[in-house]
Specification:
Radius of gyration: 18 Å
Strand order of the largest sheet: 3-4-5-6-7-8-9
CATH topology of the largest domain: Fructose-1,6-Bisphosphatase, Chain A, domain 1
Distance between the termini: 41 Å
Shape: globular
Number of strands: 14
C-alpha cells in the first residue's frame, strides 16, 4: 500500500523528474536524430529511437528511487522482456511509462509527442503526468482530486447540444476485422471521425480540455492509456470498453474502448461501436 503522504507529495516531485528526463534525453535529440539512432521494433509503424530508450532508463532509475519497492512497466523494457507486463497484476506499486508517446511525429520533427507516466497500485491508477515539452504543456491528475494543465484546473464539459461529435479513432486498416466493422459504425449522422494523430496521450489531453469529444481505440498497451484515462475522468469525463466496463490495465478488454468528455458521450460512442 502506498503511503498517503507520498501521494500528497509525489505530483510535484514526479513532474520535476519528468521535466528533467525530457530536458536531458529527449529535447536535445528533437530534430537532431541521425539515421543510426532510429530503428523499428515490430514493423514500419513501430519506431524506437535512442531518446525513447535513454528517457525510459532515466525515468526508471529516478521513479523507483523515489518509491522503494516499486517497479516500472515501460514500453521499451517490455519490448525487451514481455514478462515485465505481468507486474500490472502484482501487489507492488507500478510506474507505467511511455518515454516518447508519438515516436513517429518525434522522428519527423513534429511537435505532437509527449512523455506519459502513471502510478498504479493493484490495478488502479492513482496519479498521472502528461508532458508535451515541444508544446510547453504539462498535465497532471490525481485520483479523486482533479486534473490540471499548466497549473490550471481542467474541466472537459459536455459537447454543445446539437453539435457534431468529433472522435479520434484507431485506423481501421490496422485493426482486426471485427474491430474494423465497429469503427466503421462510427460514421453516423452528427458524428465525424479522424485517425489518431500519432500520440494517444495528446488525444486524451484534447478530450480533457474539451477540444475533442471522444476517442475510440483498438489497442490496449497500458503505457499509452493509463495516464490519459485518469486525466479524462478527473477532468469530469468518462470511459468505457465495448462491454460497458472500465478499462483494465492488465489487458483483456472488449475493444474498441472509448474515453469521452462526459458519460453521455461515452455511452453514445459505445452504442455506435456495438451497433445498437
Amino acid at each position: 500500500m502506498i503511503d498517503e503522504r507520498f501521494l500528497t507529495e509525489c505530483p510535484a516531485r514526479v513532474e520535476e523528474v519528468v521535466r528533467q528526463a525530457a530536458a536531458a534525453e529527449i529535447m536535445p535529440r528533437f530534430r537532431h536524430l541521425s539515421a543510426d539512432e532510429i530503428s523499428s521494433k515490430t514493423g514500419p509503424h513501430d519506431l524506437v529511437t535512442v531518446a525513447d530508450r535513454r528517457a525510459e532508463e532515466y525515468l526508471t532509475e529516478a521513479l523507483t528511487g523515489m518509491l522503494p519497492g516499486s517497479v516500472v512497466v515501460g514500453e521499451e523494457a517490455v519490448h525487451a522482456d514481455p514478462a515485465r507486463y505481468a507486474a500490472l497484476e502484482g501487489d507492488r506499486p507500478v510506474w507505467i511509462v511511455d518515454p516518447v508517446d508519438g515516436t513517429r511525429p518525434f522522428v519527423r520533427g513534429e511537435t505532437g509527442f509527449c512523455t506519459l507516466v502513471a502510478l498504479a497500485d493493484r490495478g488502479e491508477v492513482l496519479a498521472s503526468w502528461t508532458y508535451a515539452p515541444a508544446l510547453d504543456l504539462f498535465a497532471t491528475a490525481v485520483r479523486g482530486a482533479g486534473a490540471w494543465l499548466n497549473g490550471v484546473a481542467l474541466q472537459a464539459g459536455s459537447p454543445e447540444p446539437g453539435a457534431v461529435i468529433e472522435i479520434a479513432a484507431s485506423r481501421p486498416d490496422r485493426t482486426a476485422p471485427e474491430q474494423r466493422r465497429a469503427l466503421l459504425r462510427l460514421r453516423s449522422e452528427g458524428v465525424t471521425t479522424r485517425p489518431c494523430a500519432g500520440s494517444a496521450g495528446l488525444e486524451y489531453l484534447a478530450v480533457a480540455r474539451g477540444r475533442l469529444d471522444a476517442t475510440a481505440f483498438c489497442w490496449e498497451n497500458a503505457w499509452d492509456h493509463a495516464a490519459g484515462l485518469l486525466l479524462v475522468t478527473e477532468a469530469g469525463g468518462a470511459q468505457t470498453t465495448l462491454a460497458g466496463t472500465p478499462f483494465r490495465l492488465a489487458g483483456g478488454n472488449a475493444l474498441p474502448f472509448s474515453a469521452a468528455r462526459d458519460a453521455a458521450t461515452a455511452e453514445l460512442v459505445r452504442g455506435l461501436l456495438t451497433g445498437r
